[in-house]
Amino acid sequence: MSEEEKRTRLRQIEETLATVRGELGDRSDDPQDYGDAGQDLVAREEHAAQLEALETERDRLLEELGE
Predict the structure, then answer these.
(1) The pTM is what?
(2) Which portions of the sequence form the region Disordered (predicted)?
């Protein structure tokens, strides 16, 4: 992958990170039934996994670019 391709991918990752971080918003302390609470937990875990994968890729690209 060329340096330009890496920089393009970094921009894409940053945009995706911003989108994923904004999708769920803040956690609510409002009472929920077990089904809603379970769905919320699953969604948050999936988002956390996405964020971790994207951040790992971003860190790797930054390291390759010497930044």
Answers:
(1) 0.76
(2) 19-39
